[in-house]
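Page 42, continued from yesterday. The earlier attempt failed because a stray header line got pasted into the input along with the sequence. Redoing it now with the clean sequence only.
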Amino acid sequence: MNSVSRLAPVGLSRWPGRTALGALSLFVGTAALTVLIAVQQAFKGGVTGTLLGNYVAVQVRAVDYLAAAMTIGLGAFAVADVTYLNIYEPTAEIGTLRSVGWGDRDVRWLFGLEGILTAVVGASAGALIAIIATAILLPVSPTVSTIAALVSAAAGILAAAIALLVPLTRVSRLAPATALSSE
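This time it went through. Structure tokens are written below.
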């Protein structure tokens, strides 16, 4: 494991609330999409049952998938926003790293890895909670829930990775002297 990979978790721990917010945003979308996919696959779009003696009918519609996809998209943008703040605030530290020989690629890798780790934590937690919830609340096969969770988590992480491209372009704009003089 190189020094960049070891520094990424340290960077996330510097702002735990910010990291948690980015992960939580992706958590919600991933959990929602996992449940929708599990319900759709297990029941072909419809679930019927009783809840406290009342008849409950749930239909999974295209608009539900759109809402879950938009939530994942907003979660991905939240992860990108957190990464942008993590790049913007320690500008002098980035200047120091660049002045001692770290290239743009190394610094981008550091912040990109921080963003991906945030996305993985949020998406994985959302998928896991959704698996547990569907196992408790619905007669859904564990295989169906697991596949739905993997698809949802992958979608969340991929969306975050794409959204991270924007803040990572900021790193190359920071000249070491300019970054060091910002403090």
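Notes: DSSP finds seven helices and two strands in the chain.
Reminder to self: strip header lines before submitting.
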